[in-house]
Design brief:
heterodimer; A: 272 residues; alpha/beta; Rossmann fold; 8 strands; B: 115 residues; 3-stranded mixed sheet; 3-stranded antiparallel sheet; 2 helices; 6 strands
């Protein structure tokens, strides 16, 4: 390896890499000597052509997510992408949210799981239309799955679409679904340090919900430590402390959704 | 776990670009992966080994550049690199609202052979 810039070229070795790309072009001078051209003077060395691509690996998903976003915005629908580890209370929170919102926001749910339609059946108790996506072995939802699931929803008019992602704090973080808000749950049974262990998903959250707060004593949950950890990674996120079962914090949460929906509805779809 | 499908997307793009460039073989693929992307480079390398045999990228070198988390501090008017992924400015301790780098999942470049 080149010791001066760490660029991976071995000094004096036959040229196998050409026109290599530095993370910050111009950030340092290349005064030391190694070949940066395509054609090696050494006989027998292979010649390679460099293709400069700089493309997002998930550009297809990103594009489909933007299409979803435009589609939902044009209809004034607020879209939530709800993420957490398995068993943190996403389904119960969603079911109780729909019950409380009642006629104020007409809501539908798209729910992703590797297998079973147990969550969909639990959510249907709320009376809202529900579509279950079984992802098979896929550990996250992608934008095109949401677009396909949407076609199965019988929705003349809708205010709120809640997407319950696969229970997983890692993979879903990378996939934009076209949502307005990412909602990440941290249950008191998960432990206070989840945000430090899984920074990417918490970093992308618009709202973080500490769930199952009715169990805090049984779990010796340290509320101050948890909120401090959330603030370290996601200080920009709106923080809620909720027990969907006991009803704690649900009014604030529902008011927040109603205000967010008003913002989405009032937004000029042609404005940037 | 999702590294497999991410590698699949990257490889799909790489093979397509190679074909469009009229290349016969891919010699090296370079990725830029942000530390806040949620993707583990080692898992990508493993997926690469599994996915490339039988393709024009068989035997190719996979080079992954990890991109650190870089935030902008509006108070100090400077960028800072965060080692622990906290968004707080190391000088003024104010939280940053602006992540400037660290979420990349990018196919940056590749080396191809025409013969």
């Amino acid at each position: 390896m080149c010791n001066e810039c760490g660029c991976g070229l071995s000094a004096g070795a036959p040229v196998t890499v050409s026109g290599h790309d530095h993370p910050a072009p111009g950030a340092h001078e290349h005064l030391h000597d190694h070949p940066h051209h395509h054609h090696s003077s050494e006989p027998g060395a292979e010649e390679h052509q460099t293709l400069d691509l700089r493309r997002a690996i998930l550009e297809k998903n990103d594009r489909l997510a933007e299409r979803n976003r435009g589609f939902f915005r044009a209809r004034g629908i607020l879209v939530l992408n709800v993420l957490s580890s398995p068993g943190s209370g996403k389904t119960t929170l969603i079911r109780e949210t729909i019950r409380r919102l009642g006629p104020r926001l007409k809501t539908a749910v798209i729910v992703g799981d590797l297998a079973t339609d147990n969550d969909a059946r639990r959510l249907r108790d709320s009376g809202a239309p529900v579509v279950q996506i079984n992802t098979g072995t896929v550990c996250h939802l992608e934008a095109d799955m949401v677009a396909r699931a949407w076609k199965q929803l019988d929705t003349a008019k809708l205010d709120l679409l809640i997407i319950e992602n696969v229970g997983n704090l890692v993979c879903p973080a990378s996939y934009d679904l076209g949502e307005d808000l990412r909602v990440v749950l941290l249950s008191v049974t998960d432990g206070e340090d989840k945000p430090l262990k899984y920074p990417p998903v918490f970093h992308t959250a618009h709202a973080v919900i500490i769930s199952k707060v009715d169990l805090d004593r049984a779990c010796d949950f340290n509320r101050e430590a948890a909120t401090a950890n959330i603030r370290h990674i996601a200080h920009h996120a709106r923080l809620f402390e909720i027990s969907a079962k006991a009803g704690t914090g649900m009014d604030d949460w529902c008011d927040y959704l109603i205000r967010q929906h008003e913002a989405v509805k009032g937004r000029d779809p042609l404005a940037s | 776990m999702h590294e497999y499908s991410i590698m699949q997307s990257a490889l799909h793009q790489a093979l397509r670009e190679a074909r469009l460039a009229g290349a016969a073989r891919i010699h090296e693929i370079r990725l830029r992966i942000g530390v806040l992307s949620g993707v583990v480079p080692d898992a990508l390398r493993f997926a690469f080994e599994v996915l490339t045999p039988g393709t024009a990228a068989e035997g190719a070198l996979l080079t992954i550049e990890e991109v650190p988390a870089r935030f902008w501090c509006a108070t100090c008017r400077r960028e800072f690199v965060s080692a622990n992924l906290f968004a707080e400015c190391p000088d003024c301790r104010n939280p940053s609202n602006e992540l400037r780098a660290g979420r990349e999942l990018e196919l940056s470049s590749m080396e191809v052979d025409h013969v």
